[in-house]
């Protein structure tokens, strides 16, 4: 209760009246007048009444003590035993908090919400968020239910503003063991076909069997090695990058009986394959209007090293032309088609015919080159239908179409076939979606018998125009017209010759993105996109295997002709495996070295320094024998917590209050004040009357 004044007159006026009264009282005392005491008392009461003294009494309510309870729901906690321990501890704490109405528990479940690419256990971020709206003086402590694998533990000195105990209830057993594998060092990029080296290591957390581990290594889903590794020792691995684009190396260590989880028995490293310059050999049989179309296209690609020869004069021709006027260099047939043929990624015969320049044996060499994985493109003209056609050489065993000897001489619009609308080489060519196609006409094609492989473009009456086929390990394409140059020159508006030629060349060189039957996957943040290319019927559902081992069926919907797609929102971080028919694809979602999977055994050591600094405790929920330990009771403490109580969870109770209202009592208000004044003045009057 406090005393305040609410004067009826200004303080100056009251002071003047008070001084006047004081002077009169002093004069009365000096002259020894009777009744001076009563007069002075009456004047003092009058001045005091004018000052209007008021007693104030505050109505306050005690505030609750806030105690955040942070529950670890991260992936390292996601097993049956730890989940049961966590739930039991949480229910026990709720029961104990119910006995203390002045304690306000704030329960926050912290875990991977599926939005982070690098999942980790961040309990102290959750703790700070839980108490962001209350002053630190109201926080009585914090209780963490976790396995101890927390990745945002602050330094004890940096946590000094949190003036309350931090307690940890640790799930899991004290004798846990886990084996995991990690990639120590590895290149992010590698040249296709060149050897690379990385190092990996098997790590045993806890006390485990002192024995070597078997590690299976896969590259793009295919097993390439099986190694024996000693835990704790770095092990080198040499491998060759097989293709351009993403290549996924997967390391899997065999599980050990008794380990806490097998979720981290696999490690992944993604290496970007970079192609060295592709080597292309272009042999033109004779000069013609379309010869430079191929040359200009190939020369414009900085990733291609082009070797180009044009046969101007066969050996048997004797016309007296001086040798120094025939060519700058001789045609090195043996060097190209025997010694160095396997160094080329693609061989193109542009309107070439057999005229004795190449010995018959060399055609057999070219056929073997194709069957062993090489690529061959035939850009044919009238010479292919003649007697000197290369279809009459040993090269015929790899050619997908045999000429009939006739030419189709009629204008036509090149059109995509049914397969061509689905094939990635020709799918979506600009102008193909209209009828007639929005590009210029061609005027002749080589007539062939029923071809093998895929006819992706057609001339009049469905006659083959562009045929793609596989021969052994290699690939062959036949363009049965020499008039693609009309598109390059802009005749009747031109056409997409650059896209057509480039895609055909890259399909021949086995570009993964142009495979007719392919299953690929890629990620955009947490969105997993599955793409299935096919030139057949709808492929049906894909099977998606999650990092946790769970499988689910995913429906694929047609995005374009021959391209089926699905998008899946993911919540787990790790390696996803997609299968459809006999195709499979791997994709990693999130960071490959996420902290959540580096260590999974429960521990009390990580939180002990912070608990000691705040007078908190760290205790397990399960004993080494496997028996559950009783949950400790709560201990509310008034004032600062100065000592550690190992058997109870100490909580500092707040003394903060909130003002609900104020009660005021004026001393001279009402009849009591008036009566007191009347009494004083009546006594003064009575004394004066005597």
Folded structure, characterized:
- This protein is an alpha/beta fold and 690 residues long.
- Helices cover 20% and strands 34% of the residues.
- It is built from 12 helices and 36 strands.
- The chain has an 8-stranded mixed sheet. A 5-stranded parallel sheet has the order 4-3-5-6-33, sandwiched between helices.
- Strand 15 (278-284), helix 5 (291-300) and strand 16 form a beta-alpha-beta unit.
- It starts with a strand and ends with a helix.
- The mean pLDDT is 84.
Tell me the layout of helices and strands.
Layout: E1 2-5, H1 11-31, H2 36-51, E2 53-62, E3 65-72, H3 80-97, E4 103-110, H4 123-130, E5 142-146, E6 166-170, E7 177-185, E8 189-191, E9 195-206, E10 213-219, E11 222-229, E12 234-240, E13 245-253, E14 266-274, E15 278-284, H5 291-300, E16 304-310, H6 333-339, E17 346-350, H7 360-371, E18 375-379, E19 403-412, E20 415-416, H8 418-422, E21 442-448, E22 454-458, E23 464-471, E24 474-479, H9 485-488, H10 497-508, E25 518-524, E26 527-533, E27 542-545, E28 551-554, E29 557-560, E30 563-569, E31 574-580, E32 583-589, H11 608-613, E33 618-620, E34 634-638, E35 649-653, E36 657-666, H12 670-689
Parallel strand pairs: 3-4, 3-5, 5-6, 6-33, 8-14, 15-16, 15-17, 17-18, 18-24, 34-35
Antiparallel strand pairs: 1-2, 2-36, 7-9, 9-12, 10-11, 10-13, 13-14, 19-21, 20-22, 22-23, 23-24, 25-26, 26-30, 27-28, 27-31, 29-30, 31-32
Helix pairs in contact: 1-2, 2-12
């Amino acid at each position: 209760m406090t005393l305040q004044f609410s004067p009826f007159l200004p303080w100056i006026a009251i002071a003047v009246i008070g001084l006047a009264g004081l002077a009169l009282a002093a004069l009365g005392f000096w002259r020894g007048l009777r009744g001076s005491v009563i007069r002075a008392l009456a004047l003092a009461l009058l001045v005091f009444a004018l000052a209007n003294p008021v007693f104030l009494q505050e109505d306050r309510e005690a505030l609750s003590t806030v105690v955040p309870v942070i529950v670890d729901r991260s992936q390292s906690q996601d097993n049956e035993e730890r989940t049961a321990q966590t739930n039991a501890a949480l229910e026990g704490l709720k029961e104990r908090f119910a006995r203390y109405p002045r304690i306000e528990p704030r329960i926050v479940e912290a875990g991977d919400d599926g939005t982070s690419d690098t999942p980790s256990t961040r309990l102290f971020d959750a703790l700070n968020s839980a108490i962001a709206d209350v002053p630190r003086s109201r926080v009585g402590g914090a209780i963490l239910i976790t396995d101890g694998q927390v990745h945002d533990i602050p330094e004890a000195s940096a946590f000094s503003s949190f003036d309350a105990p931090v307690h940890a209830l640790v799930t899991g057993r004290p004798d846990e063991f886990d084996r995991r594998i990690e990639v120590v060092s590895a290149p992010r990029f590698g040249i296709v076909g060149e050897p690379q080296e990385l190092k990996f290591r098997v790590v045993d957390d806890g006390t485990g069997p002192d024995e070597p581990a078997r590690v299976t290594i896969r590259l793009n889903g295919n097993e390439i090695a099986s190694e024996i590794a000693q835990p704790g020792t770095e092990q080198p691995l040499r491998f060759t990058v097989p293709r351009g684009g993403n290549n996924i190396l997967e390391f899997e260590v065999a599980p050990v009986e008794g380990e806490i989880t097998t979720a981290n028995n696999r490690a992944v490293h993604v290496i970007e394959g970079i192609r060295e310059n592709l080597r292309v050999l272009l042999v033109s049989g004779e000069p013609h209007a379309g010869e430079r179309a191929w040359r200009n296209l190939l020369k414009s690609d900085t990733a291609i090293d082009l070797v180009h020869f044009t046969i101007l004069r066969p050996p048997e021709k004797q016309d007296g032309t001086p040798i120094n006027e025939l060519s700058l260099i001789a045609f090195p047939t043996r060097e190209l088609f025997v010694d160095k043929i396997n160094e080329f990624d693609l061989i193109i015969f542009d309107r070439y015919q057999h005229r004795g320049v190449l010995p018959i044996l060399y055609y057999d060499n070219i056929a073997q080159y194709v069957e062993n994985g090489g690529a061959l493109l035939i850009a044919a003209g009238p010479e292919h239908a003649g007697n000197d056609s290369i279809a009459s050489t040993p090269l015929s065993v790899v050619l997908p179409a045999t000429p009939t000897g006739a030419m189709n001489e009629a204008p036509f619009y090149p059109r995509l076939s049914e397969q061509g609308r689905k094939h990635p080489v020709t799918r979506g060519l600009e102008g193909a979606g209209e009828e007639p196609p929005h590009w210029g006409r061609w005027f002749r094609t080589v007539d062939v018998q029923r071809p093998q492989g895929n006819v992706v473009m057609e001339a009049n009456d469905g006659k083959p125009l562009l045929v793609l086929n596989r021969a052994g390990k290699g690939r062959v394409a036949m363009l049965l017209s020499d008039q693609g140059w009309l598109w390059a020159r802009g005749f009747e508006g031109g056409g997409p010759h650059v896209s057509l030629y480039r895609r055909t060349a890259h399909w021949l060189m086995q570009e993964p993105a142009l495979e007719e039957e392919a299953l690929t996957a890629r990620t955009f943040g947490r969105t997993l996109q599955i793409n299935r290319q096919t030139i057949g019927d709808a492929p049906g559902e894909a099977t998606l295997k999650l990092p946790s081992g769970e499988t689910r069926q995913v429906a694929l919907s047609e995005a374009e002709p021959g391209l089926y797609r699905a998008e899946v929102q993911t919540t787990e971080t790790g390696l996803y495996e997609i299968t459809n028919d006999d195709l499979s694809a791997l994709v990693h979602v999130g960071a490959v070295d996420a902290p959540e999977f580096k260590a999974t055994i429960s521990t009390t050591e990580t939180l002990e320094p912070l608990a000691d600094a705040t007078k908190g405790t760290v205790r397990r929920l399960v004993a080494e024998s496997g028996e559950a330990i009783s949950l400790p009771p709560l201990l509310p403490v008034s004032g600062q917590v100065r000592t550690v109580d190992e058997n109870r969870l100490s909580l500092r109770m707040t003394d903060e209050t909130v003002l609900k209202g104020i009660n005021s009592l004026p001393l001279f208000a009402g009849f009591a004040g008036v009566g007191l004044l009347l009494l004083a003045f009546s006594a003064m009057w009575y004394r004066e009357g005597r």
